[in-house]
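Table S2 (continued). Query chain:
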Amino acid sequence: MQSINIRDEFIKLGQAMKLAGLVYNGAEAKDIITEGEVKVNGETETRRGRKLYKGDVFSYGGEDVKVE
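Corresponding output:
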């Protein structure tokens, strides 16, 4: 499982996907998220602005990423 480190209290899902290298830009992240292809803590998430906190795990394309 890959992990990303954040300095602030939270990170938005679209930004986290870019930081993890799963997408190239925000537009790509938006399309993938709104199509329901991303899960957060096992639940399908369609909001690009979903706030992720330390300990959350998001998944896309067979890749799991933990926020630390």
